Amino acid sequence: MNIKAPKGTKDIVPSEINDWYNIENAAKEVFTKADFKEIRTPIFEDTALFERGVGDTTDIVNKEMYTFIKSDRSLTLRPENTAGVVRAYLEHNMFRESAPVKLWYKGPMFRYERPQAGRQRQFHQVGVEMFGIQDASADAECIMLAVDFLNKLGLNDLTVEINSLGCNVCRKEYKERLKDAIAPFLDGLCDDCKSRYEKNPLRILDCKNEECNKLFDKYNLKESVSGIKLCDECSSHYEKLKKYLNELNIKYEENTFLVRGLDYYTKTVFEIKSNSLGSQNAVCGGGRYDGLVETLGGPHTPAVGFAMGMERLKALLPSIEADKITFFVVSDNQLEAVKLTSKLRHKGYSCEYDYNSRKFAKQIEKASKTAKYAVIIGEDEIKNNYYTVKNLSDSTQEKMSFDELCML
Ligand SMILES: [Zn+2]
Ligand SMILES: [Zn+2]
User: Fold this and answer.
1) Contact partners, residue 214, CB within 8 Å, separation at least 6
2) Residues 6+ apart with CB under 8 A from 146
3) Which ligand is nearest to the CA of 211?
4) How do residues 277-314 score in pLDDT, each as one tens digit?
5) Quick one: which ligand is closest to 206's CA?
6) Which of 142-146, 204-208, 373-377 shows the lowest mean pLDDT across its residues?
7) Which pTM value belongs to this model?
8) Coil, strand, or helix at residue 73?
9) Positive/negative CA dihedral, 277, 282, 284, 287
10) If you measure from the C-alpha of residue 162 to the centroid of ligand 2, how many angstroms do you get, rounded to a whole number?
11) Which of left, alpha, beta for 166 (phi over 0: left; psi -120 to 50: alpha)?
12) Which ligand has the shortest distance to the CA of 196?
């Protein structure tokens, strides 16, 4: 029997763990500075949470969920984390706390996608959710935070795209206009688009199907419908966001066809692309979702957030070498070696020794691969109570006492 990791999953092995720590530590640092608190929710939830919270017209809910039945309950591995965070926000009565409630998370998500698209079925996201602020300052805060985080990682050449999807009022008119424009060629569109036509025509603009996109071009769809005509409230919200971004020196582009893949967005949506390695990669997606808390049974609560795929970030960053330990004790006296190892560890140093008591040369070879210093204990060292310390980066050697060793 030769069992491998399931298709679409990957082990994170020790040689790449520093790349993950780097992303996780940057997230913790940048988000904590902005007073976001980490929340950890279960990786599976009631299926109904995602059906209601993510939206039953999305590909995620229709095709990509890992759903299973246990004790007559339908459970689903989380395909994203906003719905779970909102559920926790309600379950712990965080809406009673003074606004804003600012939360961040990181962890694995699960979607049954075709692995040939370069996507994993278990992947990782890091993201933030901010509850309770209606003002566009919250949208600006999220975009600023995302940019700060990406900059912290060393991704500086970014394109921020923004759009407003309006509210239910202004979107209604847009949906009708969009449907009128699509009607003449609806028969030629893919099955997904056909089912979106009634349920959520905005999502048609997001279709990746080539044939559909050819028809959009042929019928000049994007030019003919232009964007949403925002109502006064949505329009002033959007203008205010742009003013904030200008004042914060965050460069952005307006993309009237940015719709995002989820049903719950209202007003602001945004995407951030990184222009490194000669190509553009979307690294962040987010937006405002003023209706979601209510949809999931809570009081009306404005909210905004974003998520980023961590595998995508990792792929854009140079990999970081594995850390070396500080000391490697080299000795043919195993008892002395383990005693010194233990002493150094208790002093707070990383330290290792050779469990097999191999020849000195073998031990030095191992030390130079894994440690900064080799601490040699030979017969003379034991007799005269000192250590020979070899600096493995420049091969210099020095005699030292234990206290001197602890000052390295
Ligand atoms: Zn509106
Ligand atoms: Zn389509």
Assistant:
1) none
2) 272, 284, 286, 306, 308
3) 2
4) 667 789 999 999 999 999 999 999 999 999 999 999 99
5) 2
6) 204-208
7) 0.90
8) strand
9) positive
10) 23
11) left
12) 2
Instruction: Round to whole Å and give the CA distance between 37 and 183.
Output: 47
Asked whether 300 and 293 are in contact (CB, 8 A), the reply is yes
Which alpha helices (H) appear in 317-397, and where do they start and end?
334-346, 360-370, 379-384
Domains 14-166+230-316 and 325-405 share a fold: no
- Ligand 2 centroid distance, CA of 167 (Å): 24
Structure tokens at 197: 């036509």
Record: fold of 14-166+230-316: BirA Bifunctional Protein; domain 2 (3.30.930)
Lookup: tokens for 182: 């699509």
Ligand nearest to the CA of 212: 2
Instruction: Using the mean position of ligand 1's atoms as its centre, give its distance from the Cα of residue 235 in Å.
Output: 7
User: Could you tell me the residue ranges of all domains in the chain?
Assistant: 14-166+230-316, 168-229, 325-405
Distance CA 58, CA 264 (A): 10
Match 């990957």 to its residue by tokens.
10
Fold of 325-405: Rossmann fold (3.40.50)
Q: Determine the distance separating the centroid of ligand 1 and the alpha carbon of 195, expressed in angstroms.
A: 25
What is the rounded distance in angstroms from the CA atom of residue 156 to the CA atom of residue 316?
A: 12
**Pairwise CA distance, residues 263 & 203, whole Å:** 8
**Cis amide bond preceding 100, omega within 30:** yes
Structure tokens of 392? 């493995």
Distance CA 192, CA 208 (A): 10
Instruction: Dump pLDDT digits (tens) for 105-129.
Output: 999 999 998 877 678 999 999 999 9
The single-letter DSSP state of residue 387 is: E
Residues near 339 by beta carbon (within 8 Å), at least 6 away in sequence: none
pLDDT in tens, 206-261: 888 899 999 999 988 887 787 789 999 999 999 999 999 999 999 999 998 888 76
Angle 289-316-286 from CA coordinates, rounded to 5°: 5
- Distance from C-alpha of 249 to C-alpha of 129, rounded to nearest angstrom: 23
